[in-house]
């Protein structure tokens, strides 16, 4: 999970391009902040 602390930006992010079989990132992986 996350935490709310000074100097951090709380929010929600979407991770795409994940290899779900091995649960690892791929070269095409990216994160998009939505909040």
Describe the protein.
There is one protein chain. A hairpin with a 4-residue loop joins strand 1 and strand 2 (24-33). With 35 residues, the chain is an all-beta fold. The mean pLDDT is 86. It has strands at 13-19, 24-33. It is elongated, with a radius of gyration of 12 Å. Strands 1-2 form a two-stranded antiparallel ribbon. It has one domain (1-34). 0% of the residues lie in helices and 49% in strands.
How are the SSEs ordered, and which strands pair?
Elements: E1 13-19, E2 24-33
Antiparallel strand pairs: 1-2
From the structure above, extract its key features.
single chain; 35 residues; mainly beta
Give the SSE string: EE
Shape: elongated
Query: If helices are DSSP runs of H or I spanning 4 or more residues, what is the number of helices?
Result: 0
Main β-sheet: number of strands, strand sense, barrel status? 2 strands, antiparallel
Radius of gyration from the alpha-carbon trace, in angstroms: 12 Å
Strand content: over 45%
- Structural class given helices, strands, pairing? mainly beta
Number of extended strands: 2
Helix content range of the residues, please? under 10%
Q: How many domains, as an integer?
A: 1
Straight-line N-to-C gap: 16 Å
Spans of at least 5 consecutive residues whose pLDDT stays below 50 are none
**Strand order, largest beta sheet:** 1-2
């Amino acid at each position: 999970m996350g935490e709310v602390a000074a100097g951090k930006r709380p929010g929600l992010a979407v991770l795409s391009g994940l290899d779900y079989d091995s649960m690892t990132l791929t070269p095409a992986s990216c994160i998009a902040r939505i909040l």
